[in-house]
Structures are given as structure tokens and as C-alpha cells.
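Hi L.,

You mentioned the student needs an example of a multi-chain input paired with its predicted structure. This one should do, with 790 residues in total across all chains.
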Amino acid sequence: MGVIGLGGRGQDLLQQAILPRAEVAITALCDRYQDRVDDTAAKVKAAGIVSEPALFTDAYACLESGTMDAVLISTSWEEHIPLACRALELGIAVAMEVGGAYSERELWTLVEVYEKTRTPFMFMENCCFGRDELMVLNMVKQGILGEVVHCAGGYLHDLRDEIAGGEQNRHYRLENYLHRNTENYPTHEIGPIARVLDLNRGNRMLTLTSVASRAAGMTEYLEQNDDTYPELKGRIFRQGDVVSTTITCAGGQTIHITLDTTLPRYYSRGFTVSGTKGMYCEENQSIFLDSEESHRKAHFSWRAQWGNVENYRGDFDHPIWQAFLADEVRGGHGGMDWLEFDAFFEALKSGEPMPIDVYDAASWMVISVLAEQSIALGGQPMAFPDFTRGRWIAH
Amino acid sequence: MGVIGLGGRGQDLLQQAILPRAEVAITALCDRYQDRVDDTAAKVKAAGIVSEPALFTDAYACLESGTMDAVLISTSWEEHIPLACRALELGIAVAMEVGGAYSERELWTLVEVYEKTRTPFMFMENCCFGRDELMVLNMVKQGILGEVVHCAGGYLHDLRDEIAGGEQNRHYRLENYLHRNTENYPTHEIGPIARVLDLNRGNRMLTLTSVASRAAGMTEYLEQNDDTYPELKGRIFRQGDVVSTTITCAGGQTIHITLDTTLPRYYSRGFTVSGTKGMYCEENQSIFLDSEESHRKAHFSWRAQWGNVENYRGDFDHPIWQAFLADEVRGGHGGMDWLEFDAFFEALKSGEPMPIDVYDAASWMVISVLAEQSIALGGQPMAFPDFTRGRWIAH
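Structure written out for the whole complex:
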């Protein structure tokens, strides 16, 4: 396997979710920055890998070097799809990191290249493997929350330092935040919600409206830290601090997602699932069930129930998490990264379909495109393309 | 003072927030149902009032009876504005209960009748007087949260029983839920947010988009309780279970509000305030401040900080709550009702402007009108009328 893109995410995944697997040989490493390549090569060597990987600073040369069966693409957002398409054409199985898209057209290209080549492709949305996300999914599939009519989520993460100066200003987020104004990172929350609502599997997203607040967070942050980031003095950030996006689905459900990455706050993905028999809320990690008298009685004084998800783990932890806990939870982001690479390598070996496929990738990533358009048009509703061309119905 | 509308709310306010005041004489009572009038009259008598109030089943006859200096209008939503206008014309000071509007035109009429008569008018949004709402407002006004760029809120209240059968099916919500599909109750959350964002006082709401989920909650509830509500068997509810509405403001802030009243859940108003120096979140009653190292360190493990609003009460409880606590918290809804009637009677005696005026009422209530239109048009953005006709700028 090769890894293209050795920034924080690529290095992290390599070391925590790939290198520990004896069955995987790292055969190529690539980054546009030589120092990252050298640094990562040294770490791989230190991990005791027998054969040294080939090293590249050109991603296409790397793909075309014939050194790999599979590739992790963890570059800047805008390089994900062109590199994935080239890899698919070369028959290299693709694990593509997340991010939003820039145009609908590139997503159609990804879908069509996949359909032409049938090279295995997985969209690496690790949050689909989160413990709470999978437990709630398990409850939904067992009907515990009834018919789900609304979900919410967000990428609620203070990234001001990373945007301004992370890794010597090399981070791709900076230029995106300076130039664009959109829901630029929807997949952490949409992935788990897509599973709850069977998106592309009997349901699909139909429309979206999006608005952005004004951009005050980065400006104030840079004013307070202008000695640290002199090169950003006076730069104007187009990216609004909070982007609110509401999605409607063919099944009549609604989804509300929030991007909030340039204000001081605690981290959350704001996962919320509301059904006719109950609900889950990440902000206080609680489950409310209509069937439980103690919940109904506490509905005006819910505080004592905060954190009550712990009471449901025994009955509803997802089977893959039960097995993971019985074995050993490892890998980054609380184990999610390990589980997603488990899924990738298992499907690759068995030839089974990837659990998060190219249609999921296209329909989740297009949110960034449609939100950018909706914001620019004052919150106008935009229609989702059907990347499955009708196959979501019979799925 | 007279009270028109003696359902749950009218009776509650009368007994908890008005009757205990020695300075207020209840001189008239009115409801379209005779039994409510008789029942309330008996309670007023039992409270030891010297002169018995005049009793009415016709609201206009009540207003025209010359028996009152002020009136509380706590009828069904659709009667609020016509009755308020008649009272203003008769020189009777109006305390008008909350609810959404049905047309933009009726709101203009209310504004114009007020401007012609200058009779005192207060919109009785009790949540503007909530302890947390006022504490957060106090922090915002002191700059503790920095520049506020986004707020959220909701009316998140399981009303299935009340909608289906409350008070022998007399509740006005039922017909609204059968016929309309909108953000029908926006003011509990918009009131406090309006204060945070200085709406109508240097800022105003510009646009709104709204979508509704499908309506599954009431149908399932009635199927489970069809012995209790046989007359509702097979009725179709147009009101979606969850309505998501996003508002943009002239100052560049965004507001997201949610109506969620026909699903099982705990009560919340989902109040959230996000600024450049910190945030408040009602769902876990916490405050995050960029200036506090303990908060920044806990940003990935926020759970220990849940409920930390208690740590801020000493420094930031609003002066009116400090006085209330030092005296005696009383009245319904945790004291909010008492404080709002304090504000009404104080302004009435002093001749000072009412704290929640006719322009607040019109711009908050019009949300129900615009949301109904936006939902019907597939989430189309709708523009807010400026009921102040420019006076919000110089306020």
C-alpha cells in the first residue's frame, strides 16, 4: 500500500491504523514536501518494516510507479478526486480521505471512472465507525427510536490555530477559508446520518438550503496573535464562522448540519436523531425513550439523565464495537480509524462491496458544492443530483 | 384588569402572576366557554378579591364594557391580534400572549393601530425573563462572549397529548396542527435571541428559509391511543414533526430555530449563543470561554464541564434576577411569568416604553407567516418586512 499526502492526517493514519497490521506492507510514500517524505520514511523504518518504501514528491509518478496494490489518499481536499480517478484507472484500490468537493462535475467523473474500472473504492469517513454513532444506528435499525424523521449534526471544532498557522502555513484549510464560503466539511456528521436514514439505500437527499454567518472569528484571532502570523495581517476571510445547512430527503426526513470551526468552543459532532419513539442527543449524551416512564417523568428536568447513553451500551453497542471492546480498542480518534481500515482491508480481501462507496462519497461531498451555491444565492434551495441514477430506489 | 381567554395559560397567569398583586383588581373575565368563566370566577372569589369581576363569553362585549384599564389577551392564537387592536382603540392597555401570526397584513394592522392610539402594548414573551437567558444576555452585553455571530434555539416540547385531546379537544393547537405546516411557535426562543442580537435596536432579521419534516408523530401517537381519541381516527396532520428555520440578520449574524412538538423528547428551548470569545449551550447548560484555560484544555472532553453555568451565576446573574432571588422567586414557569408581569405593570405605571413592544411582536410573529410560505415553496428564502420602517437603524 502507498500513502499519498503525509500531513497530520496521513501520518496519523499510517502509524496508528496501517503500520500495526502485519498483513500490510507500506511500499510507497509521497508528499509534495520532501521533509515530510523523509520524516515519514524514517518513522516507517523505525517501525521495523523490512523492505523500504519508494519515496515520491510527485503524486502521479507515485501512482504510476507500479509499487502498490492500494493507496491511501490523504492530500489536500482539492487533490482527492483527481488522484483517486488516476488510481482507479491504474487498478489501484483507493482509500480516499474525506473533505468536500468543489464542483458537481468532478464528482460525476469520479462515479464514472469507478463504474468503468470497478476498482475497489472506499470513502474513509471514520465517524461512521464511532461508538455512539454505531450504537444509535443499531437502536434505529431495531426500531427503538421509532420512525426517524429528523437528524442533526455538525463539525463543531475550533480550528483557528490550524487554519492560521498549522504546519508552517502549509495547511490547505487556510486558502479555502480565505477564498470560499461554504459548508466545507460535511461528511463527519452526514456519514452517520446517512446510515440512519438509509441514504442511497432506499432514500436520498433532495434539496439543501445553506446560509453563513459573517466571518469574525479568524479576524479577531489574528488580531490577537499578529506577532505569530504576520503574513496574514489584514487578510480577509470569506468563510463565515457558522454555516447552517438544512437538507430534505425523499423519505420526508430533514437533516440540519452546522459548520462551526472558527470560534472558540468545545469539540462536538452534534449528532442528534429524533424519531417517533425516542431521541438521542450528543450534546448531553442522552437517550430519551417514550417507552421509559423514568424518561417521561424527567422530561422537564432532564439534567439527571445527561450521559445516560452508558445505560444502553450493554444492550445496544454495535456488534463491531462489542468485538472491538472484547479484543482491544486501538488506533486514532478513539478507535474509529482502526475500524474503518479494518472495513477497507476486509472488503479488499473478500471482494465484497466497500461499506462506504463512490455514490456515498459523491452525494456527501456535493453538499459543499451546493452549499456554496445556496449561500451565494442568499439561501436559495439547491437540488441534489442523483449520482446513482435511480439505483437508490431498488437498493 | 380584565382577562380574556381562560384556558390553561390564562388561568395560570391570573392565579400565579396577577392575583397575588394587591395593586391589581380583576374587574372582568371572559372566555367563549361558560364553564371556564364560572370556574375562574369562583377561583378569583376564593382568592379574597373584594369586588366581583364582570363575566363575559363574548370578548368584544367584554372589551367594550368599560370595566378595565388593562387586559390580558390569552385566547387562541388567531384571536390575539384582532382583540389587541380593539383594546388599543378603546384605550385599554394590552398584555398580549404569544403565538405566531397568520398573515403579514394583520401584523401591519397591529403596528398601525398602536401607532395611531399609542395605547401601551406589551408582547408577553415570558422566556425573555428566564434566568439563563438573562444571564447570557448580561454576559453578551459585557462582551464576555465577544462578538456574537450565531444563535440557535427551539420550542422543543412534546405536546402530543395537548394537541390530541387537551381540555376536551378545545385546544386551538389541534386545528392548527391538522391544517397548517409552519414554525407555529417561534417566540420562546426568538425573544431572548432578539435581545442578544439587538433586533429592532440596531439590527434586524432579513431573510428566512424553512423546511418541515414529514408528519409521523401525531399519527403514530393516535394509533397507539385510538380509544382515547376516537374522533381523530384517520385525520391527517399537515404539521411536520420538526421544522427547521434559518434566519439571517442585517448585522451578518445567523439564527437557527427548531420546532419539535409532536415527538417524544425532553423539554428544552435549545438556547445557544456563539461568539468570538465563547459560547453558551442550553443542552448541557455550559459556558465555554476562550479566556479560561480549563475550558480550552477540556475542549475534547467537555463532559466534566456540563452544568458549569452555576459557576457564573455569582458574577453574571442579571440584576433583575439578583433582586428576584434576594426577595422571593414566585409565579409560574420558574419565575419568568412573575417578572414579565412586573415589567408590564411597572411600565404601565411609569409611562415608560414597554420592554417588548409592538415592533418586537410583529417581527417575531411574522416568522410563522414567512416559514409557512417558505415551506410551501420548498425552502425558498423569504424576506422580513421592516415593521419599524427604518427606525431600527437609529434606535
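You could point out the following to them. Chain A touches chain B through 62 residues (CB under 8 Å). The CA atoms of residues 158 and 261 of chain A lie 5 Å apart.

Best wishes,
N.
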